[in-house]
Every structure is written in structure tokens, then in C-alpha cells.
Amino acid sequence: MYRIFIVEDDKTIAQTLMSHLKKWDYEVQCAEDFKNIRGEFEDFGADLILLDIGLPFFDGFYWCTEIRKVSTVPILFISSADDKMNIVMAMSIGGDEFIEKPFDLNVLTAKVQAILRRTYSFAGMSNIIEYKGISLDLGDAAFTCQGKKTELTKNEFKILQMLLENKGKIVSRDDIMERLWESDEFIDDNTLTVNVARLRKKLSLAGHADMIVTKKGIGYMVKA
């Protein structure tokens, strides 16, 4: 289920968008603290952002720039401002699409579906898994947080990848060890514990000390 974060200060429009997108089985959250859009986005872990330009405190251009510091998540700008300069500005600072108010909800849905399909449907086109400000590079066995890159060992990388691919679900220790055995390296229960501890230390140094949750006697999970 894809997650969509709506940043729109008109509550009627925001609720209409939320209700409509939920009918398409998307998980949707509307922004509440317009002074902390980036923080809410990182906590939610959205797969796509619908971002209005005219907002309280800071405009959509500002928040797009802030989000681009930590994420490449697709951003669809929504605005009643229809002049070409706003469109150019939105695209030049990292926006992916632009739709003008008032818009047809079916047209909006088609754009959302196209962006999500383009971004996530083809594994070969995207080698990044993102979660609350962390970007795991599948092609480089490393994660980046706030511009700082942290290298991972082969086992640490596979553990983090598996947990992020199953965020919100408990991954059993047996399943993790089975994944690690694919490299022809036997991993026992104690070795797994050591690898998880080392991974946690690296995540902690990056500001995510509580990212991996232990489910005693079962396994581990990353909260959705």
C-alpha cells in the first residue's frame, strides 16, 4: 500500500483528497503542523507528496527544498496559481508534476498513479529504499542520513534491507538467517545478534537509535 502525504492548508480540500485517495486503497495522511512539514513527512515515511504552494509560515517551494535535502520522494505540486513561472519554479527545485486547482479528482488520481508507477514499479529503475530520512542504497550497500553516508557490511546491509522491505511487520530471526545463508555463509543465532547490534550502533550514530525494534523470542521489525 503506497503512502501519500497531503500538504494542503484548506481543510475541505485536504479532506476531500484524503477521502478520494483512500478509496483507491492508498494510506493517506494530511499535514497538521505547518511549521514542521519535513518532520511530519519523515515520521510518516510517504511514497508521494501532494504539496500546495500557498501555505502558512513557509510556502511549498520552501518545503520542497527542505524535503529534497533528505529524500527523492516524488512531489506533485497542487496550486491555484496557474502562471508559468510557478510551474517552472516547482519543477526546477525538485518537483515531479504540477496540477492546477480546481482539478478533476480523476485526473489527479491518474497523475498520482502514473508517478507511483514510474517511480516504484520497475525495480531496475530505483535502487533506493527510503525511511524517515534514511536512504538505503541497494547498489552500494550503504545508507545516507542528512547527507552523511554510512557503509554497511554485507550482512548488515541484508538485514536492514529485509527489515525496510517489511516495515510494520515482524521479520523472524529464522527468516533473516535464511536470507543471509544465500551468500553461502553460515550464520548462527549468536552471529545474527552481533550483526544486529552493530547495525543498531551505526543507525544510532545517524540519529536513529530506536529504529529496529526487538520482538522477544520472535525477531525484529521497523515500525511503519
Short characterization:
The chain is α/β, with parallel strands linked by helices and 224 residues long. 41% of the residues lie in helices and 22% in strands. The protein folds into two domains: 3-125, Response regulator (Rossmann fold); 128-222, Winged helix-like DNA-binding domain superfamily/Winged helix DNA-binding domain (Arc Repressor Mutant, subunit A).
List keywords for this structure.
224 residues, alpha/beta, Rossmann fold, Arc Repressor Mutant, subunit A, 2 domains, five-stranded parallel beta sheet, four-stranded antiparallel beta sheet, 8 helices, 41% helix
| Major sheet size, sense and barrel closure | 5 strands, parallel
**Secondary structure: helix percent:** 40-55%
What series of H and E elements makes up the topology? EHEHEHEHEHEEEEHEHHEE
Global Rg: 19 Å
Average pLDDT taken over every residue: 85
Number of domains: 2
The CATH superfamily of the largest domain is identified as Response regulator
CATH architecture of the largest domain: 3-Layer(aba) Sandwich
Instruction: Give me the number of helical elements.
Output: 8
Question: What is the CATH class name of the largest domain?
Answer: Alpha Beta
Fill in the CATH topology of the largest domain: Rossmann fold
How do the strands of the widest beta sheet line up side by side? 2-1-3-4-5
Q: Strand-residue fraction?
A: 15-25%
Number of strands: 12
Overall structural class, as computed from helix and strand content, comes to: alpha/beta
Structural description of this entry:
This protein has 224 residues and is an alpha/beta fold. The protein has two domains: 123 residues, Rossmann fold (3-Layer(aba) Sandwich); 95 residues, Arc Repressor Mutant, subunit A (Orthogonal Bundle). It contains eight helices and twelve strands. A five-stranded parallel beta sheet has the order 2-1-3-4-5, sandwiched between helices. Helix 6 packs across helix 8. The longest helix is centred in the C-terminal third of the chain and has 17 residues. The radius of gyration is 19 Å and the shape is elongated.
